[in-house]
Amino acid sequence: MYLWLKAFHVAAMVVWIGGMLILALVHSLLRAQTPPAGPGPLAEIAARWDTRVTTPAMLSTWALGVTLAVQSGWFGAPWLSIKLAIVGALSILHGIQSGTLRRQIGTAHV
Questions:
Q1: What does pTM read for this prediction?
Q2: Which value, to the nearest 10 degrees, does the dihedral of the CA atoms of residues 86, 13, 6, 88 take?
């Protein structure tokens, strides 16, 4: 069971980080527009992808990671504290990226 949980944890993490890279690319493309023409369909597609794929992958990564840590008795290990700090920072960054994109899309339709 441990190996299956770990495999799904790693797969969810890859999808999550990949989605964050897509968001970063969309942000840089929107910033590079001259003159700014608004978000357009690419931003809306990226926002839908984030809602339907990236965010659930992040939540799955967290849930599976905590499950693995509890089952293996890793809480209290220094390496896990460092890893949790990094994953927490990535979660915050994902929230900032998602919120910024949603605001850009929302202000364009007003």
A1: 0.87
A2: 20
